[in-house]
Amino acid sequence: MDKSVGMWVDHKRAYLVQIVDSEESAKEILAEHEEFEVPQGKTKSPTGFGLQEFSQEKTIQKRRKAELREYYHRIMAELKSASRIYIFGPGEAKNELVKEMQRTNGTAARIVAVEPADKMTTNQIAAKVRQRFIRKTIPGMM
């Protein structure tokens, strides 16, 4: 059984198209992270040395990074049984996903391509995945 998965991914959603023996199915995975507002200025926190000023920016960045990693792991769970993986999308999410795949599990070896792509409709995503994986044979040609 040949299972090929193509996906359009950004930081908010991933749209996966699976092709198994010429049967196509689709699934959407939404990122479940909060939209953080960057606080203005600094806050004061009591410590053993009196009030200390600090910025919450690093705390917000750490939380955001942890939430993105959880999102990427949910995507990778869908890719475990795929024999070929095609990743495309805008921004850095596709590259971050590939790095996480290389770091954590063996699915990175099955990636056939990683390409940039603009925002796309679900039909455009499915057509792009079909174009990548379903080779149409022309009569008289090998």
Task: Tell me the strand percentage band.
Answer: 25-35%
Low-confidence stretches: none
| Helicity, as a percent range | 25-40%
* Domain count: 1
Strands across the major sheet, in which order?
A: 3-2-1-6-7
The number of helices is 3
Mean pLDDT: 84
Stated plainly, the CATH topology is called Nucleotidyltransferase, domain 5
Q: H/E series, N to C?
A: EEEEEHEHEH
Under CATH, the homologous superfamily reads eRF1 domain 2
Number of strands: 7
CATH architecture: 2-Layer Sandwich
Shape: elongated
Largest sheet: 5 strands, mixed
SSE-based structural type: alpha/beta
CATH class, please? Alpha Beta
Distance between the termini: 23 Å
**C-alpha-based Rg, rounded:** 20 Å
Describe the model.
- Helix 1 packs across helix 2 (93-104).
- The chain has one domain: 2-Layer Sandwich (Nucleotidyltransferase, domain 5), CATH 3.30.420.60.
- The chain has helices at residues 57-79, 93-104, 122-133, and strands at 3-9, 13-20, 23-30, 43-47, 50-54, 84-89, 111-116.
- The strands form 2 sheets. The chain has a 5-stranded mixed β-sheet with strand order 3-2-1-6-7, sandwiched between helices.
- The chain is α/β, with parallel strands linked by helices and 142 residues long.
- The relative contact order is 0.21.
- It contains 3 helices and 7 strands.
- Helices cover 33% and strands 32% of the residues.
- It starts with a strand and ends in a 9-residue tail after the last helix.
